[in-house]
From TrEMBL, chain A:
Keywords attached to this entry: 3Fe-4S, Electron transport, Iron, Iron-sulfur, Metal-binding, Transport
Pfam family, one: Fer4_13
Organism name: Streptomyces acidicola
Gene3D superfamilies (alphabetical): 3.30.70.20
Cofactor(s) needed: [3Fe-4S] cluster
Protein name (database record): Ferredoxin
From TrEMBL, chain B:
Identification of the protein by name: Cytochrome P450
Domain of life: Bacteria
Molecular functions (GO terms): heme binding; iron ion binding; monooxygenase activity; oxidoreductase activity, acting on paired donors, with incorporation or reduction of molecular oxygen
Entry keyword set: Heme, Iron, Metal-binding, Monooxygenase, Oxidoreductase
CDD domains named among the record's database cross-references: CYP105-like
Family: Belongs to the cytochrome P450 family.
Species assigned in the record: Streptomyces acidicola
Region span, Disordered: 1-28
């Protein structure tokens, strides 16, 4: 599974960081999301799925490879 | 304007209900009862607002999420048919500069990113020890004072005011002034002139303060914005308006969640016991989400306007039509939250729309969550005998503010 972050859509609410801090972080100057792990391990996927579900900008996708 | 008399023309819709809708005073924490049949049978329905216009009301969780992330749905309140919340907002809209609250992408994205830094998850989390100390101190003071006490003045109002004043760099000694004027600026029971006077007073106050920060910056958000203004990344007036918006938004909402949340928990002793006995930060964080969902205090509907025709749920929302989103209706949508009328602190509630949804979702939500986690995780442990000191029927509920809450909450212990 691969995580896709549509950065131009990101509104920097930080919800992904709250749901999945192992996979996401925020840029310090404007809060825009940073993808730390493009291919997170199985144990992190629940957090990523929550991040996908709660991202207010619908800017995160989890895609099958 | 459409004819509204039921049956006046063959294709006339049934009577168009007024919005906002009245609550059932016997169930003061539940959403207005008329929302439920609308959500079940007419989830995309016309309603009538204060100026006689008839925007669409969206009541289902899934429809709200679809439309609030749809780029054809605009937050530009300069649009002539924008369904303003009251006459005051309609009157000031043409004169309001561009803010995160009245713009769309890409302008909104630029503005939002310029004010996000103070609300970064890590920066907010770093405030936890200081907020814990403030909560402990306020509870100490309450317990040392007269019993019963008003929880609003003892804890619910001072905590968010202290926190936002400290974060922004606004002197807390002015809290009486900014609380009073914030409430008046948002009170739909006042005339447009009265509300405008309160907004102006806040604007002038913030402008003076901001000029001081330009000359003598400190370690606070206003000074950070002053730096951006000096660097040419932000206009002076933008920064002043953002300062006012953060000051207003930063205390009334959180204060209401503290007082109304406590009232809801006192009405549900089994749930209160779960919270009092838990030391699990995840459970406490989940309880905050459930109380946000259950109470959905922002009760006057999010407001938008369609920039193009939009087909949804068998209806066509026409270009220029106003669109309202009732957050309480969506957060009590049984399709999204089974047995939604039950306060259940153990349920997964994180996908509620209490902070809105889409790019305009609440800027301060992470700060609000932190304050509520600390209060809900502390107050009932430290004051296990906390109870209401007046019957719920006698509590003065505020039906005319931006948020729905109580004007005081007498408690004893």
């Amino acid at each position: 599974m691969r995580v896709e972050l549509d950065e131009p859509k990101c509104v920097a609410s930080g919800q992904c960081v709250m749901a999945s801090p192992e996979v996401f972080d925020q840029r310090e100057d404007d809060g825009v999301a940073i993808l730390l792990e493009e291919r997170p391990g199985e144990e992190l996927l629940d957090g990523v799925r929550e991040a996908v579900a709660i991202c207010p900008a619908a800017a995160i996708r989890l895609v099958e490879e | 304007m459409a004819d509204t008399l039921a049956g006046a023309t063959p294709d006339a819709a049934p009577e168009v209900p007024e919005y906002p809708m009245p609550r059932d005073l016997r169930c003061p924490l539940a959403p207005p009862p008329a929302l439920e049949p609308l959500r079940d049978e007419q989830p995309i329905a016309k309603v009538r607002i204060w100026n006689g216009s008839t925007p669409w009301l969206i009541t289902r969780h899934a429809d709200q999420r679809a439309l609030l992330t749809d780029p054809r749905v605009s937050n530009d309140d300069h649009e002539p048919d924008f369904p303003h919340v009251n006459a005051h907002r309609a009157a000031i809209a043409p004169h309001t500069p561009k803010l995160i609250t009245n713009t769309d992408a890409p302008e909104h994205t630029r503005l939002r990113r310029s004010v996000n830094a103070p609300f970064l998850v890590k920066r907010i989390e770093a405030m936890r020890p200081a907020i814990q100390k403030t909560v402990d101190d306020l509870i100490d003071t309450m317990l040392a004072g007269p019993n019963p006490a008003d929880l609003l003045t003892a804890l619910a109002l001072p905590l968010p005011s202290l926190v936002i004043a400290d974060l922004l760099g606004v002197p807390y000694k002015d809290h009486g002034f900014f609380q009073e004027n914030s409430n008046r600026a948002l009170d739909s029971s006042l005339t447009a002139e009265e509300a405008s006077a309160a907004s102006r007073a806040l604007g002038q106050y913030m402008d003076t303060l901001f000029r001081e920060k330009l000359d003598n910056p400190g370690d606070d958000v206003l000074s950070e914005m002053a730096g951006r203004v000096k660097a040419g990344e932000m206009a002076h007036q933008e920064a002043v308006n953002m300062g006012v918006a953060m000051l207003i938004a930063g205390h009334e909402t959180t204060a209401t969640m503290i007082s109304l949340g406590t009232l809801a928990l006192l009405q549900h002793p089994d749930q209160l016991a779960l919270l009092r006995e838990s030391d699990d930060p995840k459970f406490i964080a989940g309880a905050v989400e459930e109380l946000l969902r259950y109470l959905s205090i922002v009760h006057s509907g999010l407001r938008r306007v369609a920039k193009e025709d939009i087909e949804i749920g068998g209806q066509v929302i026409r270009e220029g039509d106003g669109i309202l989103f009732d957050l309480h209706a969506a957060n009590w949508d049984p399709q999204a939250f089974p047995e939604s009328e039950r306060l259940d602190l153990s349920r997964p509630a994180r996908q509620h729309n209490a902070f809105g949804y889409g790019p305009h979702q609440c800027l301060g939500q992470n700060l609000a969550r932190l304050e509520l986690q600390v209060v809900y995780g502390t107050l009932y442990k430290r004051v296990p005998t906390l109870s209401l000191a007046a019957p719920i029927e006698q509590l003065p509920f505020n039906h005319t503010g931006t948020t729905y809450g109580v004007k005081c909450l007498p408690v004893r212990w």
